[in-house]
Amino acid sequence: MRVYNLRRSLHFFCLNATFIQMPLSKKIKTMKSTLVFGLILLLTTGCNKTNKENKIPVDNNIIGKWAYTENFYGTGLPGSWHPVVPAGQTIEFKPDGTFIASQSFLNGADHFEMVDNVTIKFLPVATATGYQLMTYQVKTADRELYLAPMPLCIEGCNNKFIR
Asked: Is 90 helix (H, G, I), strand (E, B) or coil?
């Protein structure tokens, strides 16, 4: 390993010595070429992508209409599942990020974004941040979707949807 590092150091020293011995006009030409190459490299690779290009793709398992059937909550005791009132509510996820809320679930939200493979961001929502994060789980065999707000409730809370 030391031999490799020594060879590297000698190679750099030789290149440096060669550059020092060059005539001034050749040094300027070399420095200009290096500067132009560096500038081109910076301009082609140094820019960030826009937010649209950095977004996580929509999970196709959630796209479509879901019937809001039950919610899980507790009042100081271990929680339990309760039927949604009024019955017959639905939510819908569209491939373009449009969200159609139900009467009692995220009413007012009209857009969603995938944050990662377990989290969805709903907006606009009447919170201090203007959005609501929720974890999601799709049970494809049972045709069920579970959405739980983040941070989680102390006693536990969850929302169940079916296709």
From this structure: strand
